[in-house]
Amino acid sequence: MTDPKALAAELQSLLDRARADEATARVRAELAAEPHNHALLALAGEFFSAVGLHPDAIAALSALTSSHPDDPRFLMQLAAAQKAGGDLPGAEQSAARLLALAPGQPQALALRADLLYLQGRYREAFEFIAPAARSPNAHPGLAVTFARICRVENKAWEGISALEKALARPGLHPQLAADAGLQLAKLYDSVKRYDQAWAAAAKANALKGAKFDPDAFDTAAQSMCDAWSAQAVARLPAAARTDLPVLIVGMPRSGTTLVEQILASHPSAAAGAELPDLSRAVIRLTGPMKTDPPLLTDPSPLDAETVAREADRYLSHLRSIGPAAARVTDKMPLNALHLGLVRAIAPGARVVWCRREPLDVIASCLFQHFAGSNPFAYNPEHLARFHRTLDRVMRHWQGVLGLDILELPYEALVADQEGWTRRLLEFAGLPWDGACLRYHESERVAMTLSNDQVRQPIFTSSVERWRRYEKHLAPLRDLFDA
């Protein structure tokens, strides 16, 4: 009989050493031996969700909810796994079952409203959540979801009121307070209360407690560039060429989601969204993270056997995302740091480098509650320093790797959508298709911070947004001018 606590500790140890494949195989073996072990199914659901194997998580949690149909905990986990896996209708059904069991449960209410929001059903989401959110004792998490919907429903002041009440509650968890504060900052921005928006964002970002040393990261990145010389690249073993991957890289908030949505609207392309595969491969090759984000500072671990193994892992995952697709996107922005590895395991990959006015990138990042680590993203100077380092790394890759890299300026794309869409498709090796101009009509749901934005046609209002906060951001201009 499996001891779930002991297995959980073993799995965490394997994950800490970037041995997710071994951990996954271990869980599957245990499930095969004990498919009806409820504690094991619960652990498997949690594990598979954590490593991004959403179909496996859904299968484990579906079995669990079948045997425990009246347990709201398992229904909540199932709905969350279905949402993360892109099965929004399934998640809605699970949320409906959950609400039938616990009609006023705040997390269940917020979940269903968020599912409606993700599908662009904003009015329905607002009408569903508003009664609970307007309650004097509304849960702070409910207020955050309500405020997000208020922003797209042009009801900013109602969202502001809900968030201000939530933030006034004593004992609020710092991460929930940070999320609420950043939503409040966005709403203040939408009603042109820019000083209040900046103050709310700064306070929320401080609550994140992020630790980032820009000097140490810059030094490590320079060491990586020095090690990945043209001579070192020429000596690399390389996997067979493939034109399946299209990597979309750059700073967060530089237009990567928009570019992926345009490509994903093509009938011969499939969207992988933000895949963690390459960063996990780097950790497998280097051991415990010395920097965050991780860096492969030395190409020497890439022998022929390792390259073949990592290529098979990565390309097999891409093929599973789009079995019939000619191109599959990987929109993890900070894969920009891992292009040396890409050169080895997928030498035919195409790379779209999304670029945007640096101060617009910084302003946008400072108003976001990122799901991942991104420790550089909560301080203006850290963002500027990281941006400058990333640019230098990309210039180095352009000089030594021989990968096809298209620089795509966000401002040019929104000014000439058709011209740049044609150029993008030509670069990706895809024939012209007018559906790519109507990306906002796609039924695909972008599970990123830009979800509501890519449901709209191209707009230019985000260009030079930083000037609203010029007195705070202008001093950073010197870092880029230098």
Can you tell me about this structure?
It is a single chain. The chain contains 24 helices and five strands. With 482 residues, the chain is mostly helical. It has two domains: 103 residues, Serine Threonine Protein Phosphatase 5, Tetratricopeptide repeat, CATH 1.25.40; 268 residues, Rossmann fold (3-Layer(aba) Sandwich). The chain has a five-stranded parallel beta sheet, with helices on both faces. Helix 5 runs antiparallel to helix 6 and helix 5 packs parallel to helix 7. The chain starts with a helix and ends with a helix.
Q: What is the CATH topology assignment of the largest domain?
A: Rossmann fold
CATH superfamily of the largest domain: P-loop containing nucleotide triphosphate hydrolases
- Strand-residue fraction? 5-15%
Judged by helices, strands and strand pairing, the structural class is: mainly alpha
Indicate the radius of gyration in whole angstroms. 23 Å
The biggest sheet amounts to: 5 strands, parallel
Q: Provide the low-confidence segments as ranges.
A: none
Distance between the termini: 63 Å
Q: Return the domain count.
A: 2
Helix content: 55-70%
Shape: globular
Q: Quick one: how many beta strands?
A: 5
Can you name the CATH architecture of the largest domain?
Answer: 3-Layer(aba) Sandwich
* Averaged pLDDT: 90
Helix/strand order: HHHHHHHHHHHHHHEHEHHEHEHHEHHHH
CATH uppermost class of the largest domain? Alpha Beta
Number of helices: 24
**Which strand order spans the largest sheet, edge to edge or round the barrel?**
2-3-1-4-5
